[in-house]
Amino acid sequence: MTAHFGALTGARATFLLSGVRVVDPAASSDAVRDLAILDGRIAEPGDLPSDIRRLDGDGLVVTPGFCDLHTHLREPGMEGAETVASGARAAAHGGFTTVCAMPNTDPALDEVARVRWVASLGRDASARVRIIAAATRARAGEALTDFWELAAAGAVAFSDDGVALPTARLARSALLAIGPLGLPLIEHAEDPTLAGGTLMRAGQVATRLGLAGWPPSAELVVVERDIALAEETGGRLHLTHLSTAAALDAVRRAKDRGVRVTCDVTPHHLAMSDSWVAGDRTFNWDEPRAAESDSSGEGLDPLRAFDGRCRVNPPLPFREDGLALLGGVADGTIDAIATDHAPHPPERTLVEFADAAPGMIGLETALSLGLAAVDAGCLSLAALLAALSSRPAALIGEERGLRPGADADLVVFDPAGHWRVERKTLASHSTNTPLLGMTLPGVVRLTVAGGRVTFDEDMGLLG
Amino acid sequence: MSAVALAAETWTRRHLLDVDQLSRLELEATLDLAGDLRGRRATGELGEDARRLVGHAVGLAFYEASTRTRVSFELAARELGATVVDLSVAGSSVAKGESLVDTMLTLERTGVRTVVLRHAAAGAPYLVARNAGLRVLNAGDGAHAHPTQALLDALTLRDALDGRLDGRTIAIVGDVAHSRVARSNLHALTRLGVRVVLGGPPAWVAGFQHWPGVTVASSLRDALREADAVMTLRVQLERAAGGGIGSLGEYTRRWGLDEERMSWARAGAPLLHPGPTNEGIELTAELAASERSLIGQQVTNGVAVRMAVLSLLAS
């Protein structure tokens, strides 16, 4: 198998995919048919040149390109972990055509020139790079950034991701200021006075491992605070990486009464539980392991327990929370699956658990984890694909659809194929994920962004 | 078959990361071997068959302060014939910022085969076990585990309770939440058939009501009521301030042990403490020095248990 990467500046593509399953969640359509791309646009059926390049789509799925609302590209400042170019390749490999770069770089993306510069790095990348600007200068949580000018420079949202806005007063100011722009304030909902010094979700596993526990109230108090502020100010609020059923319920209630609030969840909070810190590697939708017989003398798996790559903020949830979040994706309360792709070099993850940099890479495994949930019967394919493509895209004003005449922006994947997550199969500079070494379902074969092929695995359009 | 050979036969472990990896049979064989080695050592005649670590280099890597654990490991390794290398962390490349894994790989390349690791971070021994070719002996990792302490406590308790632990009730009092000693004791004692009752301020026992085989008492009197033995834990003084428990004075008044309160336990119940003690806080000096106190025996047993574990890992 050979993977090739293309760029947004490449030639416009022309090809015909025959007998492919076309799933267009925004149009509620799902049918096996031919799909043709002519000069980078979805073609009308019928009027095709006779010599068009024909690709066999048998067994493959084509769907609108994915949009990640939460990506850390690490440039500027941490280029050893990722760059705009490598992160965009990882995106293309994962089926993403848009990534929204978080501003917690070094320096932070808090000024127009920095936003423009990172956007310019993405111009010839393998995925569209949209910028989320910092909500406060240097992400210091004191003074708001220049929302109007940053929005004019292309910022699609504002966030101090990594932390929440530290005070209710500042969060209120931000939501008030952002209101007329119509852009979302993206909040990493976590109260530092509750979360500080903690290493994993508080619960039986944390008790057993002797790791300081993160209480779910750390998320809920900020979620409830911000919902109250959004309701009062009318500003748009987007809560990222929800990890508890309680926070999801709060969002559901707020949506029911018309608050302008949206939310996302990461693939790892859907798939993995706190037991991964103790070495478990079963997914939330798998049958739970029988309670360990306490006379067995098995102990923790020395190869997997306390793996720093399982440290993440917010911490991996209880299995029940993961299943509740899956339910939120299925019923639409959760607007998007966002990866929180957080590359780190080995020296920051192959360390003592307490010293590990929180976060894991996610762009290249998001679809696979979602498909595993679909295979397990927890989620419909349409709900998964909508949460990866049309719904997040709509939140930043992008369109996704496979209507004739539109720019081709799509991903073709083999849902029955499997791949092994390893250094040589990952396009990211970094490999920090506990999935490394595991075999997952769902192989991306082709990604087309804005009419150009950005990723091709054995489809023969690139290379 | 000698205790040494019998124990070696039931052990297939490359590391000792926590007692939770040991079956009941392995636990009992280890205690038997430790008892055997303790007896031989007391006579001054250890015997050649016990010198199983001749030609074997053992590294002591203590990233946290320790007296009794470090000294007893060093003595144990020397008794078994090992060459002992003490990685004094403050004077090593660790002080220059070398990572734990790199330091352990360096030890391995110098020929060290077994490392005894004490570290402030829970899970540090697991990190070393999967990234270096060393045999790893956990000498305490954060609040997670202290397996040799649990073994020496089990040996001390078994001796004090007429050789039988199965069916006994043992109270553990104090800051359980931050205690690696308590966690390893919970694994070892419950596996040996002991019912454990925990006592302490809510913040220090939170979450433990779900631990299999464990109950949490809400007063010292309740914790001690059926106890065949009592273990009190060291109060980390820096943790008591602002740690959600009120004052140290209140802790001592509610949970501190003295000879009178020990009468709430079963008649003659002995007292254990992992040391070092804060006399006047978790227990009185009189109690620590009384006949009920097995604190000195714990230290002596520590050497025997560490000899047993080292010889098993080397076999």
Q: How would you sum up the global shape of chain A? A: globular
- Secondary-structure element string of chain B: HHEHEHEHEHEHEHEHEHHHEHH
CATH topology of chain A: TIM Barrel
| CATH superfamily annotation of chain A | Metal-dependent hydrolases
**How does CATH name the architecture of chain A?**
Alpha-Beta Barrel
Mean pLDDT of chain B: 93
Number of domains of chain B: 2
Largest sheet of chain A: 9 strands, mixed
CATH class designation of chain A: Alpha Beta
CATH architecture of the largest domain in chain B: 3-Layer(aba) Sandwich
Tell me what you see in this structure.
- The complex is a heterodimer of chains A (463) and B (315).
- Chain A is 25% helix and 22% strand.
- In chain A, the strands form 3 sheets. In chain A, strands 1, 2, 3, 4, 5, 6, 17, 18 and 19 form a 9-stranded mixed β-sheet that branches. Chain A has an 8-stranded parallel β-sheet with strand order 7-8-9-10-11-14-15-16. A two-stranded parallel sheet of chain A has the order 12-13.
- Chain A has one domain: Metal-dependent hydrolases (TIM Barrel, Alpha-Beta Barrel).
- In chain A, strand 9, helix 3 (147-152) and strand 10 form a beta-alpha-beta unit.
- The model of chain A has no long low-confidence stretch (mean pLDDT 96).
- In chain A, helix 4 (168-178) packs across helix 7 (217-233) and helix 7 (217-233) packs parallel to helix 8.
- Chain A is globular.
- Chain A has 463 residues and is an alpha/beta fold.
- By secondary structure, chain B is of the alpha/beta class.
- Chain B contains 14 helices and 9 strands.
- Chain B has helices at residues 3-10, 24-43, 68-79, 100-109, 124-131, 147-160, 180-191, 202-205, 220-224, 237-240, 248-255, 259-262, 285-288, 295-314; strands at 57-62, 83-87, 114-119, 135-141, 169-173, 195-199, 214-217, 229-232, 271-272.
- In chain B, the strands form 2 sheets. Chain B has a 5-stranded parallel β-sheet. Chain B has a 4-stranded parallel β-sheet with strand order 2-1-3-4, sandwiched between helices.
- The radius of gyration of chain B is 19 Å and the shape is globular.
- The two termini of chain B are 16 Å apart.
- The relative contact order of chain B is 0.16.
- The model of chain B has no long low-confidence stretch (mean pLDDT 93).
- The chains are: A alpha/beta (463), B alpha/beta (315).
